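Record type: monomer structure entry
Structure origin: computed from sequence
Chain ID: A
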Amino acid sequence: MSASVFDFLRLVGERPDLLGRLKVAGKDEVLGTAFDLGFSFTEHEFDTAVWGAEMRLAQRRGEAFDAHFGLWELMWGRYYLEYLVTDLVQSLEEVH
């Protein structure tokens, strides 16, 4: 199911209008939009996929996955969803 989560994040990253609307939305609205667009993952699957990817990426970078994780520094001044679609997804694609 994590492929579906990342397919959704890629779609959001390709649609500035959607990212602009969802970056300030609550998690329920983000997940509801995903469902409306045909993605069928649950909140638990979303959380597991995103946090799992962040943990694997930290490990590949040789970093601890804690409050000092280097990629989180990229998030300052942006919303978490922006970070996910622009930094996390891109970083994951670069390491594959």
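Annotation 1: The longest helix spans residues 43-60.
Annotation 2: The chain has one domain: 2-95.
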